[in-house]
Amino acid sequence: MDEYYPNLSPFRAGLACKCPRCGRGKLFEGYLTVRASCDVCGLDLRGHDAGDGPAVFIIFILGFIIVPVALWVEMTYRPPLWLHAVMWGPTIIGVTLALLRPLKGLMVALQYRHRTTSEQD
């Protein structure tokens, strides 16, 4: 290898949605589409696919946090059901959209770190 690439933390690069090799190039093209290659170091990113992993983690995270909070709100304040829908629907959608991209970036960075695609540099 002609160039030096720092040993980046997959957590730092992935959560920042940066290239897992150089840490400078953008990982995504659009909201969730992984770029074909890094525009800075040229890393081929086509083989990296997180699949449904990030969505599953978000389901677990939100289930662990939102369900107990919603139950606590119900037992403490007894709001009408429509208010639960108005409160928790947008909360769940907002947190999902906020976490989906960084968690997908983390999964791609972990794939790169552990060499799980067929072709690596």
TrEMBL record:
<protein>
    <recommendedName>
        <fullName>DUF983 domain-containing protein</fullName>
    </recommendedName>
</protein>
<dbReference type="InterPro" id="IPR009325">
    <property type="entry name" value="DUF983"/>
</dbReference>
<feature type="transmembrane region" description="Helical">
    <location>
        <begin position="55"/>
        <end position="75"/>
    </location>
</feature>
<keyword id="KW-0472">Membrane</keyword>
<keyword id="KW-0812">Transmembrane</keyword>
<feature type="transmembrane region" description="Helical">
    <location>
        <begin position="81"/>
        <end position="100"/>
    </location>
</feature>
<keyword id="KW-1133">Transmembrane helix</keyword>
<dbReference type="Pfam" id="PF06170">
    <property type="entry name" value="DUF983"/>
</dbReference>
